[in-house]
Every structure is written in C-alpha cells, then in structure tokens.
Amino acid sequence: MPESPQTDFLITLFDLHRLVRQYVDKEASRYGTTRAQWAVLSKLSRAEGLKQAELAELLDIQPISLTRLIDRLCDAGLIERRPDPCDRRANRLYLTPAAQPVLESLAERRHEIMQVALGDMPADEARKLVKLLDTVKDNVRRAIQAPQLTVHAKESLDG
Predict the structure, then answer these.
(1) For the whole model, what pTM was predicted?
(2) Domain ranges for the chain
(3) Number of H helices and number of E strands within the chain?
(4) pLDDT per position as a tens digit, 99-125
(5) How far is CA 10 from the centre of its chain?
(6) What is the CATH number of domain 5-119?
(7) Alpha carbons 126 and 117: distance in angstroms, whole number
(8) Helix (H, G, I), strand (E, B) or coil at 44
(9) Which residues are registered as beta bridge partners of 91?
C-alpha cells in the first residue's frame, strides 16, 4: 500500500533530522566541540542575557543537562554567569570575548554544512524550501498552543 504524502513527509522529515544531527555531530567533533555546546553558543550569540531555565526551554533540553554544558563552557572561558539583578536565585548567561573566534569558526562550519545539505539546489529553491518549512513549523506551533484537539482530529484518533 503506497504511503500518503503526509506519511512520506513525516518519514523524510524525521530521517533528515537524524541525518543532519549525525553530520553536525561529526563536524563538531572535528573542531573539538559538541553539537550541544554549539547550540548553546549559537543561541546565546543571538540572545545574550538569558536565564539558564529560558535557554534550556529554547534548546528543548533538561535544565540539569544544560547546567553541565554551561559548566564546561564556563571552564573553557567561553561563557560567564552573571547574577540576575531582579532575581537573586538566577544567573544570566553571557558570552565572553574568547567566544567570538569560536563563533566565527562555527559559522564557517554551519555554512559548509548547509552547502553539503543543499548541494546544488538553486538559491531561490532553497528560499522556497525554508519558507515552506517555516509554514509547517508555524502550523505545528499553533497546534501545540491550541487549547485542545479539534473535534475532527479527536474523532480520527478515537476511530
């Protein structure tokens, strides 16, 4: 029985996610880092001053796992914790000047990874692909935020 386009999409999406993670792991290890450390540095480069709990939520990892990652990055001199001026119990995370060359190197690696992933796909096609994936992402985000399943979706699950 042939698969539906929706099933093909999910299978392809899950396979792509797994393969990209494997490839990024391989590339990150070549440069003495991990995909998780790379993700922390990248997120902080776009949003310095986050609390650890906020960063853990953005990265979709457990706070205890993030604490260990941050400890390693602090020990490496790439991140520093600063007290939150409004909450004595919390720290905010900031990149150190030593993180800049690392971020530049990671940006080069990210560019190389994207060139491999997109191959010879024309730029306009790549932009269309990103736009379509953003639409899918927005659809899923709205579904997560919806208060409950629609009647049609619930009937499908019950049937």
Answers:
(1) 0.75
(2) 5-119, 121-159
(3) 7, 3
(4) 999 999 989 999 999 999 999 999 999
(5) 18
(6) 1.10.10.10
(7) 10
(8) helix
(9) 83
